[in-house]
# Entry
Amino acid sequence: MADASDTPRDWRDTVFLPKTDFPMKAGLPQKEPAILARWQSLDLYRRLREARAGRETFILHDGPPYANGDMHIGHALNHILKDMVVRTQSLLGKDAPYVPGWDCHGLPIEWKVEEEYRKKKRNKDEVPAEEFRAECRAYAQKWVDTQRAQLQRLGINGDWDKPYLTMDFAAEATIVAELMKFAESGQLYRGAKPVMWSPVEKTALAEAEVEYEDVTSTQIDVGFEVIQCPEYPGLAGTIAVIWTTTPWTIPVNQALAYGPAVDYLQFESGGKRYLVAEPLFPAFSKRTGLKLEAIVALVKGPVLEGATARHPMHHLGGFFATPRPFLEGEFVTTDAGTGLVHMAPDHGEDDFYLCKKHGIEPVFAVDAAGMYRDDWLWLGGQGSVINKKFVASDGPICTDLREAGMLLAASDDFQHSYPHSWRSKAKVIFRCTPQWFIPVDKAIDGEGDTLRARAMSAIAATRFVPEKGRNRIGAMVEGRPDWVISRQRAWGVPITLLVDRRTGQYLVDPAVNARIVAAVAERGVDAWSDEATAALLGPDHDPADYERVTDILDVWFDSGCTHAFVLDSGRWPELRWPADLYLEGSDQHRGWFQSSLLESCGTRGRAPYDAVLTHGFTMDAKGMKMSKSLGNTINPLDLMRDYGADILRLWALSVDFTEDHRIGKEILAGVADQYRKLRNTFRYLLGALDGFAEEERLPVAQWPELERYMLHLTHALDARLKRAIADFDFNGYVRLLTDFANEDLSAFFFDIRKDSLYCDAPADARRRAYRTMLDVLFHAMVRWAAPVLVFTAEEVWQSRFPDADGSVHLLEWPELPAETGEDVAPRWAEVRALRERVTEAIEPLRREKTVRSSLEADVTVPDMPLGADELAEAFIVAKVTPAATVDVTRTDFHKCGRCWRHLPEVDADDGLCARCEQVVA
# Structure
């Protein structure tokens, strides 16, 4: 063996260190835009369609976000998840096109245009409708273009040159055609029902447009003097007390409801008699200060049948002079209040149906802006009813009731949850107005299933991820009322119905409907006008006989029709109906998932999707909801500028997105560290494979056991990743990938084989086997990582295989060698377990500086699953011998000056071992 000299030879120039230009520092914010520009110049999306043409398809239908404002963190998460679905399906070899879309109609956009009007002191009602709609269209297009660029910057691959927009004329015509299908099958009716109404926006709202906030309201106890009670005449003159948190509904009261199972207490206090539910008397007494001086009678609920009472403002005459009947209401409970409920059929669903049952109709006293009609006897022309001062305990309503002697209590301290418009943030009210509805319990075509029954069957047949989504949407559909599809606004698809003035029935004429659809396809929603009515009706109908409906469709009907326009129209030939998957936030169980379900079940008899995937909401680092007022919002545009899109993507795909999840600086720092480890894995692979050529490749049969074991682990990972894709378990997918890179590769395989890579001769079979396995790993890892780290994977691929016309994203799932290495897996699992024990035993000696590295350690082990030399190589120690326990001592062997291993054939430190001497000879 070589002797050590006084000046040790520096052998570094003989060691085969990894070589690569791939930088450790990512510089993603600078690199990613250039990579994106390259994809655009390649027309990568179209290239991918050509490459996958004729394959099995996978269709994810994009739920349309509103074209309103910059992308926020929720948009980013949602689109990253969609991109992950599409890219993984494409990686599996399927044709997985992605057509992005935008919801362009509706209140959010109209509201923004009106805000600009208000700044300029313009009145929207004075602007011609076509001009206003043109401004809405331009506003929507501006934000479509903005969001499109922002989403592309995220690395989302899609048909960005041909997205779908609900304001495209062809889309508007499709929406009209879908509406006509409901009309022609008898699934539309016009009726007056209380609906959620925004006095600020002057329109009905869908449930999905409403959010609940905690508020403090005025609560009042009001007396109604009983006129007569046939079942108990002694009740006459008694003051029946109601309690309400909506004082503004008292001017529209028409009846009182009692509970058939409630026991009522008739009592005396201060020389007057009162009637309240017995269980609620203590709370009532506390509110009003009325003491129980004497019990007159206990009155069973049914005794109140046929009784009537005076409205507190009966002295005004007219509407208020009519006696108010007592009506039995199953919904009346003793949870709160007085056990008597005042009925205003204009402003409550229970009120409406109970009064309707008894022939009491709404009076439409409150107008669209929340003001009482000018001709209303009490408070005419006053309001608005959502004005806190107007309904306060010292406001005009309470003041008048107090002067009438019927306000028993009033306070401005009742805390509860109340609905608000999610756009204007203003309170909404229940308001009875004529609206257009799709019935959910009417037999379709007069026979067969109802819409509700079809929808429930479709829910049962749909896959939900997570499974709890089935119960959520199922409960909503099972208990939902008829679908209110009309809105009293200007920017939207019109309800293109013509109503016979004589019968009140809408016209069903396929020829007229066809002309309407054709007109909208040519001119958009502006085609629906008074001037066009005669031409649309044609020669068979007199325009004077018909009223043109001027309401527009609820935007949820718009978006509920996107499956028809996008998947079923032929405009995107690569798509098909139904979709394999819809993917949105969990709030869409009451929104897009449901509107699409109802629309499709009403026109096609089934859901437009086979599966529904829902994600939770992104909270701040403390788990709090993000809010501009709290100052805790996180802008994805800023994150891409500071970290790069791949970091944002890795975060989105690392969290359990099916639940609410968090983001913050510390969380992102952890993600950046995770990214750095993955990047270093690729950097090592690139460096270790420098110069690798096909002639160096070794067949698996000639590989050492360690390489065959790693092939076994790679096969196992391959199967688990495919399972994660099938389950849409993307955080599981990322975890599998990162754990494999960190634990199986960096901390185990690379660690053991770095000696072979650096110091074996290039032609050595062990080194060739290692590099062959690294090549297998490179091709697998870069493909598996590509759907997650879209920019980095491209950078890695181009670093090894530069190709001006190629892309990692055109590749398919890796093909691993057929051999699985399963035969060596049990033995190497034992080796790994033993290696962990040895490493743990060495650590105290390293801390005490007894050994500086594991290479200086001699170890004993109780089991010898491999030969001593093989175990020493696996444990990266000097020597392994059998013994009863794991024990570590410092070796007496000298260190090889080239490979740094301590071996018996090295005569002195810095001499060469036999292997190294042969390599450098």
In short: The two ends are 12 Å apart (CA to CA). The longest strand covers residues 210-228. The mean pLDDT is 93.
